[in-house]
Amino acid sequence: VNAPLPSAAARGALDRQRRQAEVVDALARVLPPHALLWRREDTVPYECDGLTAYREQPLAVALPETERQVAEVLATCHRLEVAVVARGAGTGLSRGALPDPLGVTLSLAKFNKIVAIDPKARTATVQSGVRNLAISEAAAPHRLFYAPDPSSQIACSIGGNVAENSGGVHCLKY
Question: Which of 11, 20, 65, 83 could form an S-S bond across to 100 if both were Cys, CB 3.0 to 4.6 Å?
Fold first, then answer.
């Protein structure tokens, strides 16, 4: 008796599992275990940004804690020809953080330090995961603030503001 051939969907799922295993194995060499998510129940929160009508499940989510880990994740993904989608707080409404279903989501949320505030130059040096409101709070003692104020300023990060060109009503005023 001839066994039926697997359907295209079944072959696709098997190919995805193989690719996921390859990617996870490679990333496990450059990230600590707690900084690599790949099980469905762990990656569900990363399947969309604030626009929840569109969802994709990434192969894995990398949560690096150092610049070196970011570089190693990017080098690994480049070597394996795996797409990478950078993600901050995920509050956007433009699908900018929508994962590639055969790619890696690179969360930069742990990069949340304000490096310096220079009131004279009216500049701030910050990491990409710093929340908008935190920048304004740090600048307030100098009678300054960070003008972009999307409605999610409590949660959104400056990296997403730059990547998505987001703003708010203060951007129009100032």
Answer: 83
Strand pairing report for 60-62 and 104-107? parallel
Can you tell me which residue has the tokens 């930069």? 108
Mean pLDDT is highest, among 8-17, 64-73, 150-159, for 64-73
Rounded to whole angstroms, how far apart are CA atoms 155 and 153?
5
Residue spans of beta strands (DSSP E) within the chain:
36-37, 60-62, 84-87, 104-107, 114-118, 123-126
The pair of structure tokens assigned to 113 is 């330090």
Neighbouring C-beta atoms of residue 43, cutoff 10 Å? 17
DSSP assignment string, 87-109: ESS---SSSTTPPPTTSEEEE-T
Separation of alpha carbons 95 and 74, rounded Å: 21
The pTM of the full predicted model, rounded to 2 decimals, is 0.86
Indicate the DSSP class of residue 45: G
Sign of CA dihedral 41, 43, 46, 48: negative
What is residue 100's DSSP assignment? P
Question: How do residues 44-88 score in pLDDT, each as one tens digit?
Answer: 999 998 889 999 999 999 999 999 999 999 999 999 999 999 998
Residue type present at position 70: V
Cβ atoms of 49 and 56 within 8 Å: the answer is: no
